């Protein structure tokens, strides 16, 4: 029987380089296996459909989650989806007021959001913009009022961890699956557009 790693402190003083490398590999495998075993495929399909049909995708993330949001934005750009990283300039409330029912908002927050996120969610609801939330906690104002909730395991302790290894691996996986579903929804069109983008990028 393989014991689950402590995602907050997967390694300790005295670990060799090879042992740390193996531990981080095991931690990623553990995170991906756990999230895969608990996937809500219906929610994933609904999230992908909202993005496919959206005119603009508004993305929200602070700290490490903002990096996940930016990476997701970069992928969607390559399949011709207009994205705005609303939290990029700390003006997310004002940016949220530009959302419409024909757009979609994707909010990434391990603990289910901060007061700034709750303010944005209130504005998005008033604007009737659909919301997709990736988080670990359903008992927050953010997750209770969204259109799609994509759950990850509640295992990290922010005051006692080495890094957010677990949550970021889970967010990456879910966003990669959503991107793949968006891509696959119109595979040839997506592929041709990405080839065109890659062609222009290679010229730089």
Structure, described:
This protein has 204 residues and is α/β, with parallel strands linked by helices. The protein has one domain (37-202): Rossmann fold, CATH 3.40.50.10490. 52% of the residues lie in helices and 12% in strands. The chain has helices at 17-37, 41-53, 64-77, 92-96, 115-126, 141-144, 165-185, 187-202; strands at 56-61, 82-85, 104-108, 131-135, 148-151. The chain has a five-stranded parallel beta sheet, sandwiched between helices. The longest helix is centred in the first third of the chain and has 21 residues, at 17-37. The radius of gyration is 18 Å and the shape is globular. The chain starts with 16 loop residues before the first helix and ends with a helix. The mean pLDDT is 92.
Which helices and strands occur, and which strands form pairs?
Layout: H1 17-37, H2 41-53, E1 56-61, H3 64-77, E2 82-85, H4 92-96, E3 104-108, H5 115-126, E4 131-135, H6 141-144, E5 148-151, H7 165-185, H8 187-202
Parallel strand pairs: 1-2, 1-3, 3-4, 4-5
Q: Characteristics of this structure?
A:
204 residues; alpha/beta; Rossmann fold
